[in-house]
Hints:
Elements: E1 20-21, H1 26-60, H2 65-88, H3 97-114, H4 116-150, E2 153-154, H5 157-182, H6 191-211
Parallel strand pairs: 1-2
Binding site for Fe cation 1: 43, 75, 78, 173
Membrane topology: Peripheral membrane protein
Pathway: Cofactor biosynthesis; ubiquinone biosynthesis
Amino acid sequence: MPPVPPPVSISSNGDSSKPRRKPLTQKQKDFLSSALRVNQTGELAATLIYAAQMPLLTRTHPHLRPLMKHMYNQEKGHLDTFNKLITKHRVRPTALYPFWYAAATGLGWSTAFLGREAAMACTEAVETEIGTHYNGQIRELLEMTSEWTAEGYDVGPELTDLIETLRRIRDEELEHLDHAVENDAKKAEPHWLLTGIIRAGCRGAIWVSERV
Length: 212
């Protein structure tokens, strides 16, 4: 009689060859929902700022038209990305959509009215805060996935894709920051006050949108 083979261990997903997936804790679920919500809100605001700035800026500085269109199109792409993610994962969008719509449009129009340097200083301030914000999210996700890998769990494509998406968008936002500085953002008067107010407003908007 041939020897009886040892029993096969069946993993929780029904396939012993597949790595295990670690369920998200409630804190991790809340973090991811908050991240998608605030990112959607931020990209909406950025799109509205550029949309409000473009008519005034390109009328007085026609050479800026290609750059403004390029930055607007990238922001619109970012917004489309987070619109899809927030729908896919059934995340509640911000309840303050009308307020952020008005605030972003007003910021874009008013800085363009003040002139090219002020408009570029607005981009510099916003993208500085957004870049820092995305870096924080990426760092949090990398810590989470590194811990799972160390424990023998599979991270899965959704989180790895999200990290790469955040990295790409962050890099494009920082590209906008570089463009703003190259186009005399630092010459806005008073630069420290204008950028300080806008950066503080961005931090406040991020804090509120993560929660509401």
